[in-house]
């Protein structure tokens, strides 16, 4: 279960990760994922921001190669694909605990 959650974190973080105008397609109570979907950050920047902002989440992420791969895939995808992945992640209750962290990382990863 932890691997699945971290995989979702990777998807979410990648797009969601690492942080981005897609909020229009979601209910008003849902977070704005535009910063995640439209991030210009690369994997290294997102990872460095995660380490700096949430070391425990970073340690969990680092222990899961699947999550790392998903984040790399997410960040390498075009915004339309990121939107699809973010929408999928939003439907996963177990991924919701990561949305705040991902949004925070997405908003600051350009500083790394």
UniProtKB/TrEMBL annotation:
Organism: [Mycobacterium] crassicus
InterPro entries: MHB (IPR032407), UCP010611 (IPR016572)
Keywords, alphabetical: Signal
Signal peptide: 1-24
Name of protein: Hemophore-related protein
Organism lineage string: Bacteria, Bacillati, Actinomycetota, Actinomycetes, Mycobacteriales
Keyword Signal recorded: yes
